[in-house]
Specification:
The chain folds into 3 domains: 3-135, MgtE N-terminal domain-like (MgtE N-terminal fold, Alpha Horseshoe), CATH 1.25.60; 148-267, CBS-domain (Roll); 282-451, Tetracycline Repressor, domain 2 (Orthogonal Bundle). Helices cover 65% and strands 6% of the residues. It has helices spanning 3-12, 14-19, 23-34, 37-43, 49-58, 61-68, 73-82, 85-93, 97-104, 109-116, 121-131, 138-141, 155-165, 190-195, 202-205, 219-228, 249-267, 282-309, 316-319, 322-346, 354-382, 388-418, 429-451; strands at 148-150, 174-178, 184-189, 213-214, 233-237, 243-248. A 3-stranded mixed beta sheet has the order 1-2-3. Strands 4-5-6 form a 3-stranded mixed beta sheet. Strand 1, helix 13 (155-165) and strand 2 form a beta-alpha-beta unit. It is globular and about 90 Å long.
């Protein structure tokens, strides 16, 4: 049986599963408890919110903790609001500092104060310090619950510390080394502890060629840095060089996935959703999508105003080619914007080579506009009863539209990035609407000039 069918069966016999008095209910409950926490967490999306509390509180505590960490932040907050204060505190105490920070990011100030009271003083201080960082920065995504070693430790002492603290602290193949003031000195590998003399001190074997990430660095730039230097873990430091935490390959994968999702939303002129689609309030989605569509509708009406102004110029023959011209312009700009948005996201296009990119695209625009202009002339000529002047107007218009489309598609993402706006906005409906307006305007003006 597939997991989807299992979920459907569990949803159908939900009450029996919770009570566990019938054979079917007991079997389904046993199957639910045996599921991987990630799969079990997915089942919460299949049930109504009024059933969430019954399911969550019926589970053994350890199973609750395992599943809770796999839920979306929105659902985590909903479950916390349903629990008694004691149960809430027990659950929060089992979460890592980074998981707590992610959940608390969406709380109001009053709710945040209430939840912080449930944490131990040490954890409370760590959470408050992390909440000061922008969630989109390196400081906002780093892992702080990580083991570091001091530079004056011997290898022998370091091994004993690892054996002692391993269950409580996360450590990786790369272990970072600090001085007594917690300033980053470098890193060692686990194999260094095995292969080197136990009496050596860490400052004798420490590697100092590590890539460091400033705490205020944007998370997209963090991805570019770690990808460029091919590192799976990187230390996060403040302006004075103090060690704050690490960014791991798992975090990197999460960031890439989130950035890709946000880019897809922005390309469609939809604001990125904080939770899943079904968890986001219907009215909120309606307002977000409706406001953009109303704006694009009003913007598109400019095209109608231009056509109305040149109504006397555009005979039926010229009207037949409007769709061909505007579509070609939109396609050309979309191609270019996709190339530069991908280049900016992966670090292939930077301030160092942007001039080379622009020159290359302008050259491409010139050649493509000429080729497409010739094709447009031939297409219009076959349908025009040999109206050479009209065909020339269509051909020149298409050349101008393609040229402007590619230049605009190249420059808009760069301008948005300069303004600290996600370049992904320069794609999809927004760019298509803009090119429709520009394309029709160019077509009307050029045609009017030529046939007049």
């Amino acid at each position: 049986m597939t997991i989807q069918k299992t979920f459907e069966q569990m949803s159908r016999y939900f009450n029996d599963m919770i009570i566990q008095k019938s054979t079917m209910g007991s079997l389904l409950w046993s199957e639910f408890l045996a599921m991987h926490p990630a799969d079990a967490a997915q089942f919460f999306n299949y049930i109504d919110k009024d059933r969430v509390q019954d399911l969550f509180t019926t589970m053994p505590f350890e199973k609750r903790v395992a599943i809770f960490t796999k839920l979306s932040d929105t659902l985590k907050l909903h479950i916390l609001s349903l629990l008694a204060e004691k149960e809430r505190g027990q659950l929060l105490a089992r979460l890592s500092i980074d998981e707590l920070t992610d959940v608390f990011d969406d709380l109001s100030d009053d709710a945040l104060r209430e939840y912080l009271k449930l944490l131990h003083k040490k954890d409370r201080q760590k959470v408050v310090s992390l909440l000061k960082f922008d969630p989109e920065s390196a400081g906002g995504i780093m892992d702080t619950d990580v083991l570091t070693l001091m530079a004056d430790f011997t290898i022998e002492k370091s091994i004993k510390i690892l054996q002692r603290l391993q269950p409580e602290k996360a450590f990786y193949q790369t272990i970072f080394v600090t001085d007594q003031d917690n300033r980053l000195e470098g890193y060692i590998k686990l194999e260094d502890l095995v292969l080197k003399n136990p009496k050596f001190r860490l400052f004798d074997i420490v590697h100092t060629d590590n890539v460091t990430i400033p705490a205020q660095e944007d998370r997209q730039e963090v991805v570019n840095i770690m990808t460029h230097y091919d590192v799976s873990i990187a230390p996060v430091i403040d302006k004075e060089g103090f060690f704050l935490g690490v960014i791991t390959s798992d975090t990197l994968v999460d960031v890439v996935e989130q950035e890709a999702s946000e880019d897809i939303y922005r390309m469609a002129t939809v604001s990125p959703m904080e939770g899943s689609y079904l968890e986001t309030p219907f009215v909120k989605i309606l307002i977000q999508r409706g406001s953009w569509l109303v704006f694009l509708l009003l913007a598109q009406s400019i095209s109608g105003m231009v056509l109305a102004y040149y109504e006397a110029t555009l005979a039926f023959f010229y009207l037949r080619f409007i769709s061909m011209l505007t579509s070609t312009g939109g396609n050309a700009s979309s191609q270019t914007s996709a190339i530069i948005i991908q280049g900016l996201a992966t670090g292939q296009i930077t301030s160092a080579n942007v001039k080379k990119f622009l020159w290359r695209e302008i050259s491409m625009a010139a050649i493509l506009s000429f080729v497409l202009g010739v094709v447009a002339f031939m297409r219009a000529y076959t349908a025009s009863s040999h109206n050479l002047l009209g065909c020339l107007a269509i051909s020149i218009s298409l050349c101008a539209i393609v040229m402007v489309s590619i230049v605009l598609g190249s420059c808009m993402p760069l301008i948005l990035k300069k303004l600290k706006v996600d370049p992904a906005h320069a794609a999809g409906p927004l760019l298509a609407t803009l090119m429709d307006i520009i394309g029709i305007t160019l077509y009307c003006v050029i045609t009017h000039y030529i046939i007049s």
